[in-house]
Amino acid sequence: MFAQMVDWVSGSNWSYVAIFGVAVIDAFFPVVPSETMVIVAGTLAGAGDLNLVLVILAAWAGAVVGDNISYGIGKWAGEHTVRRLFRSPKAHRGFDWAELQLEERGSYIIIIARFIPFGRTAVTFTAGYTHGLPWHRFFRFDVIAGLLWATYATMLGYLGGKQFEEQPWKGVLLGLGIAFSVAFVIEWVRHRRAKKPPATAP
Question: Distance of alpha carbon 4 from its chain centroid, rounded?
């Protein structure tokens, strides 16, 4: 996979288009590994093959555009259609979780969910078909979420690329290891909180 990603993010100007496109698609079709692509691009930026700022901007723009496409589909197609598109029980549990989080935490969950692979998809679709979150508010929080995510993923690869300039694949593995660890911790905390019994009134 690393060799294929390197081919896509090859050091040419088209690399930034590829980063943008993968980030867009991943927002509503979460089998496309946008984190991996951005980390690889960050690694190549660390090795001097790509421009660091342009990688962040491409990933940021792609994330925001993709998230807003998801929001639009949720708003105009509705909950029933969205749940038909994602038919698996796991996906439906994700949408149920997203609805609860939007109700309890409001717009802030948009920022947190950006770092959870399917969580961001569930939240962006749900934010669209939930009538309590207008687009202008979603957009403001999504811009922040996209910037934080793009900077985080790019810098993971960039620092690894600086450490392993002669063997960039090691930088990619380091960045992916940290990203997966962070996602695992977020998921673990989420499941722990979900299983915690509600406090009883005295």
Answer: 21
Positive or negative torsion for Cα 160, 62, 139, 183: negative
Copy the structure tokens of residue 33: 């590994």
Q: What is the pTM of this model?
A: 0.78
Alpha-carbon gap, residue 195 to 148, rounded angstroms = 29
Instruction: Judge whether 28 lies within some domain.
Output: no
Q: How many domains does the chain have?
A: 1
Q: What residue has token string 């690694």?
A: 43
Domain that holds residue 136: 2-7+34-191
Q: Contacts for 100-104 with beta carbons within 8 Å, 24 or more apart?
A: 102/126, 102/127, 102/130, 102/132, 102/133, 103/132
Q: 115, 120, 151: which is closest to 138 by C-alpha?
A: 120
94 domain residue, yes or no:
yes
Instruction: Return mean pLDDT, the chain.
Output: 79
φ, ψ for residue 49, nearest 5 deg: -90, -20
- Whether the CB-CB separation of 98 and 56 falls below 8 Å is answered with no
Q: Does residue 29 form part of some domain? A: no
Tens-digit pLDDT profile for residues 120-170 = 899 999 999 987 789 999 999 999 999 999 998 898 888 876 654 555 545
Question: Does 16 reside within a domain?
Answer: no
HSE (CB half, 13 Å, CA atoms) of 40?
22
